[in-house]
Amino acid sequence: MALASAFVTGSRLRLIVFLFSFILVLYMGFSVLRDDIRSLAIHHLYSSTPNTTSKYPITARPPASESLPPPIPGKANATLVFLARNSDLQGVLKSMRSVERHFNSRYKYPWVFLNEEEFTDEFKADVMTMTNASVQFGVIPARHWYQPEWIDEARAEQGARQCKNWMSSMQFFFRHPLLQPYRYYWRIEPDVEYFCEINYDPFDYLEENNKNLWQVLTMNIGFTITLVELHRTVLTLWDAVKSDTYNLCHSTLFNDIGYQHSTMHCPQQPLFLKNSCTCNRVHTIDYRQHSCLMKYNKMLTGRW
User: Fold this and answer.
1) How many domains does the chain fold into?
2) Residue 282 is part of which domain span?
3) How far apart are CA 115 and CA 136, in angstroms?
4) How far is CA 271 from CA 114, 266, 276, in A?
5) In a domain, 296, yes or no
6) Domain assignment present for 282
7) Is the peptide bond before 57 cis (omega within 30 degrees of 0)?
8) Are 283 and 217 contacting, i.e. CB atoms less than 8 angstroms apart?
9) 3-class DSSP state for residue 277?
10) Could you tell me which of 116, 103, 81, 229 has the C-alpha nearest to residue 162?
11) What is the DSSP letter of 77?
C-alpha cells in the first residue's frame, strides 16, 4: 500500500515537473517571438498614420554669428569628426568606408581626427586612403581628455562603473582649434556600419533652416534611435536640473539614416526602398520594449 502511494505521489510529482517545464518552454518561446511580432504589428499601424507637421515653423535666418566663418561655397559649414586612439584603426577604417560609400564620396566634407596623443604614421596613411576629402589630425589637450588632478580618482572610478565608460570625459573637444572654423560637426565612432544611401545633405538641411541641436528637436524629421536610458547612468541628472520627472528617453535624429553600432536602426517603408537600404527591418530597435519611438508616435498622433 505504501509502495503504491509512493508510486502515485512520484507520478504526480513527475506530472507537475513536466507541466512546469512545458509552460516554461512556451513562455521562453513566446518571449523570443514577442518583440518581432510587436515590431511588425506596430509598424503596420504606424505606417498608416499620416505625417504631421511641426508646430514650430521654419523662419528666416537671423544674422550670422560673427564668431563663425562664412559657409564653405557649395556646401554647409561642417566637418566629420573622429575621437579615436591609434588602437581604434580597424574600427575607424570600417566606419569611414561606410560613411564614404553612402554619403561623403558625393559631398566631400573634410575629416578631423582627434586623439590624446599623436597619431602614428600608419594610422594617418591608412585613413588618407579611405577618402578624397581633406583630412586633419590633432591632439586634444590633456586637460580636455583627462579628469582634473583634484578629482578623487578612486571615487570617480567607482562612479564610472555605474555609468557609460568615459564617453563624456572629452566634453571640451569642440574647443579644439581644428574645429573652430565649423558650425556643425558629425561625430563618427569606430565600428559603425551604415545601411542606406544618404541622398541629401543633413548639414545643408540644418544650415538652410538655421537649426542648431536644440531647434532640431522641434522638427518633424524622425529619429535614428530612441533608446530608453539606464537610470543608473543619470542618477542625479533630473534633481540637478530641477524638474519633476524624466522618462529616460534618449533620442538621436534622422530616421532615414540606417545604421548599426551595438544596436541597429533600419528605416521602414517607404524610406527602406527609397534609400536602397540593405538592413533587416524585422531586427530594428524602433519598436522593441527598450525603444521610446512608440511614446513619441503616441505624443504626435494620440495613437500607438
Assistant:
1) 1
2) 37-53+220-304
3) 11
4) 34, 9, 8
5) yes
6) yes
7) no
8) no
9) coil
10) 229
11) S
Which pLDDT tens digits describe the chain residue by residue (304 residues)? 544 454 446 666 677 766 767 676 665 555 544 444 444 443 443 343 333 333 333 333 333 334 444 545 568 889 999 999 999 999 999 999 989 988 898 889 999 999 989 999 999 999 999 999 999 999 988 776 666 677 777 776 666 554 544 444 455 788 889 999 998 888 888 888 887 888 778 888 788 877 664 333 333 333 344 545 555 555 666 666 655 565 556 555 555 454 444 455 666 667 766 666 656 565 565 655 556 666 655 655 555 4
Q: Please check whether residue 203 is in contact with residue 78, taking contact to mean a CB–CB distance below 8 angstroms.
A: yes
Max Cα-Cα span within the chain: 99
DSSP H/E element including 296: helix 293-301
- Provide the strand spans (E) within the chain: 78-83, 111-115, 135-139, 184-188, 193-194, 223-228, 249-253, 259-261, 263-265
Whether 215 is in a domain gets the answer no
Rounded CA separation 264/251 (Å):
14
Question: What long-range pairs does 241-249 form, CB within 8 A, spacing at least 24?
Answer: 247/292, 247/295, 248/292, 249/292, 249/295, 249/296
Q: How many residues are given for the chain?
A: 304
Among the listed residues 113, 250, 81, the one whose alpha carbon sits nearest the alpha carbon of residue 182: 81
Query: Does residue 86 belong to any structural domain of this protein?
Result: no
Q: The C-alpha cell of 257 is what? A: 539614416
